[in-house]
Amino acid sequence: MYWEKEIETMDRTALERMQVERLTQTLDRASRSPYYAERLKAAGVDARSVRTVADVAKFPLTTKDDLREHWPYGFLAVERDELIRMHSSSGTTGRATVIFHTTGDIAAWTNIVARSMYMTGMRRSDVFQNMMTYGLFTGGLGFHYGAEKIGALVIPAGAGNSKRQIQLMRDFATTVIHIIPSYALHLSTVFQELGVDPRRDTEVKIAFIGAEPHSEKMRQKIESFYGFKAFNSYGLSEMNGPGVAFECPEQNGMHLWEDNYILEIVDPDTLKPLPDGEEGEMVLTTLQREGMPIVRYRTKDLTRVIPGACPCGRTHRRIERIKGRTDDMLILKGVNIFPIQIEKKLMDIPGVGQNFLIVLDREGYNDHMTVKVEVNREFFLGDLKQLEDLRRRIVEDLKSDILITPKVDLVEPGSLPKGEGKAVRVVDNRKD
């Protein structure tokens, strides 16, 4: 049942003592980075300022903009030759973030992912099929290493190619999968087209779902079709990636691994701490990272701590499913997209007007993006070939930047909605 019973069931007093010790070490490491050396000195705090876990609030907050502005090496707390891997978030140059790992960082991250997977019932005898993108995205490699740590047979299938995914599941008797929720629903239609019943014709019993927001209704729909248990997970690249928080078999909130992270819930406007049970913005501090420790990172994710003990016996606090974000980031097919990225690209293209609208729709189980773009009147009145050439250029330019191929509609100037003050940039028509 437990990967590390002593840690997972540690009483709160002992767990907080461990957090204080590790926080002190983290702050000492962080002070060796160019960014934190300056920030901590300016704030008049250092590792000696820590006596209790609550003392973390004395330290300055870190934002995604801080990471972007100090790209690429401003947060490094070790020499570059101690690093063995990097991951980067999606986004344009200057908007992406990069995270570096030492050998020790990879080992610690791998361990908590393995702990999370083991908690759901995954064992050495399982066959794990990873249907996530590999590369700079953290999700694929994070789960891959965790499964290998457990000792399971890993099929690094990667994303897409639905018929082959089903063939692999059947040929190798896959028992555990990692999949994006929307793709799980899309894959269900392929199962039906092929006349294959996953309940009867596959051995899958566990699925790890994440990388994009999804409702309980979507989770239930997935579980109903496939006949397996689908476990929610939470992670973000700035905090390593997957494994920050994970559901246990109770499936009532995600245990956030407090031996690896300090969790705060703050009011997103006042930044004042909120008690367990109240919804606010999640702020996280790494406790096991050597190469690039991060102190009090504003995740922009809204959630709450679920009060009370979990029947599973684990003492690490549980967070609720993420309710939304305090910024305007969109997540489509597991890719983070900011409207400002699209705006920057559009504004560099001759003939494009001043307004655009991002429309998100769900067709069947697939999410799609349409970008409606106003064009200059004189350009709009030109010949059809000019308009088609412009549309194709916009598609290609956006695809190269956001990694998603959007549909692009060119519309007359002044035809798109305008809000009072802030422009209307996104219409999300997706329904569960």
Account of the protein in words:
A nine-stranded mixed beta sheet has the order 4-3-5-6-7-8-9-14-13, with helices on both faces. It has a four-stranded antiparallel beta sheet with strand order 10-11-12-15. It has a four-stranded mixed beta sheet with strand order 20-19-18-21. The model has no long low-confidence stretch (mean pLDDT 92). The protein folds into two domains: 5-326, Rossmann fold (3-Layer(aba) Sandwich); 335-428, GMP Synthetase, Chain A, domain 3 (2-Layer Sandwich), CATH 3.30.300. Strand 16 (330-332) and strand 17 (335-337) form a beta hairpin. The longest helix has 19 residues, at 12-30. It is of the alpha/beta class. It has 13 helices and 21 strands. The protein is globular.
Architecture blueprint of SSEs:
Layout: H1 5-8, H2 12-30, H3 34-43, H4 64-69, E1 83-88, E2 98-102, H5 103-119, E3 127-130, H6 138-150, E4 153-155, H7 162-171, E5 176-179, H8 181-194, H9 198-201, E6 206-209, H10 216-226, E7 229-236, E8 241-247, E9 254-256, E10 261-266, E11 280-286, E12 297-303, E13 305-306, E14 318-319, E15 324-325, E16 330-332, E17 335-337, H11 339-347, E18 352-363, E19 366-375, H12 377-380, H13 384-402, E20 407-411, E21 426-428
Parallel strand pairs: 3-4, 3-5, 5-6, 6-7, 18-21, 19-20
Antiparallel strand pairs: 1-2, 7-8, 8-9, 9-14, 10-11, 11-12, 12-15, 13-14, 16-17, 18-19
Give the termini distance in whole angstroms: 33 Å
Class of the largest domain, according to the CATH hierarchy? Answer: Alpha Beta
CATH architecture of the largest domain: 3-Layer(aba) Sandwich
The structural class is alpha/beta
The neighbouring-strand order within the major sheet is 4-3-5-6-7-8-9-14-13
Mean pLDDT across all amino acids: 92
Question: Could you list the spans in which at least 5 consecutive residues all have pLDDT below 50?
Answer: none
Q: Strand share of the residues?
A: 15-25%
Let me know the largest β-sheet: 9 strands, mixed
Number of extended strands: 21
- How would you describe the shape? globular
